[in-house]
C-alpha cells in the first residue's frame, strides 16, 4: 500500500497543474503500484496440500505449485460478484501485491466446444455481472484476463451471435475503463493454432481491443512461450498493418514446460512452465490455469469434472511425466 501511495504521489507531482486531475482511463501501471504478484492463499493446490500433509506428494505440490502466484477465476460460482472481486483485490492490496483475476461468465460461453458451457443467462445479465466485477475492483491495482476462448470460439456461430459476443466484450472493456482505472485488462486471443494472426487481429479489433491494455494467449493450453511470442508478434504486425496500433500481450505458462503434444484436454506428459513474472518475450508470463486442475472428463483426467484438482496430475506435471 505504501508503494502504491508513493507511486500515485509521484505521478501527480510530475503532471502540469492543469492536468493533475484530468481523468485518464488506464493511465496507471499496476505493476509499479505493487511489490510483486499475489499468491492466492485459497487456491485449490494450497487447500489440498494443507488438508493432506501426510501425502507423499504434498510437499512437492506445495513448494512447486501452491505458492506460485496464479490467477483466480470468477464466474457464476463466485456468488455476489462485486463482493467477490472486491474481497480478492482488497486482500491483495493489503499485502501490496498485484492480483490476477479471470472473468469467465460470458453469455453462451464455450458455445461450440461445450466442455465449459455456461455463463450468464443473457447479454444484459452479463453486462450487469461484468459491471459489478469491475466495480468490485474499483481503484485497486489488478490484472484482469477477459473471457478466455471467447474470440476463438466462432466455428459454429452465426454472424448475429458473433456481433453479440463482440458487443459484450467491448461493453466489458468500457466498464473497466470507467470503474477500474488501475486495472490492466487483456482481451483473450486464444492460442497459436486456433486462428491465423490476421483473423485474430480482426476479431480483437472488432471486440474493442483499443480499449484494452493488451491481449492474452495460451490460457489453459500448452504451447511453448516461444510459439506464443511469435504468434503474439504476428498478431501485432497485423494490427499495425490493418488498424495502425499494437498492444502488449501476456502468455499463460502454467502448463507449457514441455510444449503441446497436439491434445488440449488433460494430455499426459505435460509440465509446469516459467512461474509468473514480468517479461520473458511478452509483457508478462502468468500462471492462469492452475496446474493439476482438470480440463474435463478426458485424458489423464478421465472421470473428473472441469476445474477439479487432481493431485496426481499436479504431481506428475512438476516433473514432466
TrEMBL record:
Gene3D superfamilies attached to this UniProt entry: 1, 4-beta cellobiohydrolase
GO molecular function ontology, one term from the record: hydrolase activity
Residue spans crossing the bilayer: none
Recorded family membership: Belongs to the glycosyl hydrolase family 6.
Family matches, as PROSITE patterns: GLYCOSYL_HYDROL_F6_2 (PS00656)
Signal peptide start and end residues: 1-27
Name listed for the protein in its UniProt record: Glucanase
Amino acid at each position: 500500500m505504501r508503494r502504491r501511495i508513493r507511486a500515485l504521489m509521484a505521478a501527480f507531482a510530475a503532471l502540469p497543474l492543469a492536468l493533475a486531475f484530468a481523468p485518464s482511463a488506464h493511465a496507471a501501471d499496476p505493476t509499479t503500484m505493487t511489490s510483486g504478484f499475489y499468491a492466492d492463499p485459497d487456491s485449490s493446490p494450497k487447500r489440498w496440500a494443507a488438508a493432506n500433509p501426510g501425502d507423499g506428494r504434498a510437499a512437492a505440490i506445495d513448494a512447486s505449485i501452491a505458492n506460485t502466484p496464479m490467477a483466480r477465476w470468477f464466474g457464476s460460482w463466485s456468488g455476489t460478484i462485486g463482493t467477490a472481486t472486491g474481497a480478492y483485490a482488497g486482500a491483495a492490496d493489503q499485502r501490496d501485491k498485484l492480483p490476477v483475476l479471470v472473468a469467465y461468465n460470458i453469455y453462451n460461453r464455450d458455445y461450440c466446444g461445450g466442455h465449459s458451457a455456461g455463463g450468464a443467462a443473457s447479454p444484459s445479465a452479463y453486462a450487469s455481472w461484468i459491471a459489478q466485477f469491475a466495480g468490485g475492483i474499483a481503484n485497486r491495482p489488478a490484472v484482469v484476463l477477459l473471457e478466455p476462448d471467447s474470440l476463438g470460439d466462432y466455428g459454429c456461430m452465426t454472424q448475429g451471435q458473433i456481433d453479440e459476443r463482440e458487443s459484450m466484450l467491448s461493453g466489458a472493456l468500457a466498464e473497466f475503463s470507467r470503474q477500474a482505472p488501475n486495472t490492466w485488462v487483456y482481451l483473450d486471443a486464444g492460442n497459436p493454432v486456433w486462428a491465423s494472426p490476421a483473423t485474430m487481429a480482426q476479431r480483437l479489433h472488432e471486440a474493442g481491443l483499443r480499449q484494452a491494455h493488451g491481449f492474452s494467449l495460451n490460457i489453459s493450453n500448452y504451447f511453448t512461450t516461444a510459439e506464443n511470442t511469435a504468434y503474439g508478434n504476428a498478431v501485432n504486425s497485423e494490427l499495425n498493418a490493418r488498424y495502425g496500433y499494437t498492444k502488449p500481450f501476456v502468455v499463460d505458462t502454467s502448463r507449457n514446460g514441455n510444449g503441446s503434444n497436439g491434445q488440449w484436454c488433460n494430455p499426459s506428459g505435460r509440465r509446469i512452465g516459467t512461474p509468473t513474472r514480468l517479461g520473458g518475450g511478452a509483457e508478462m508470463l502468468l500462471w492462469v490455469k492452475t496446474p493439476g486442475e482438470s480440463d474435463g472428463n478426458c485424458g489423464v483426467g478421465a472421470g473428473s469434472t472441469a476445474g477439479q484438482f487432481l493431485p496426481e496430475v499436479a504431481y506428475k506435471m512438476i516433473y514432466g511425466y
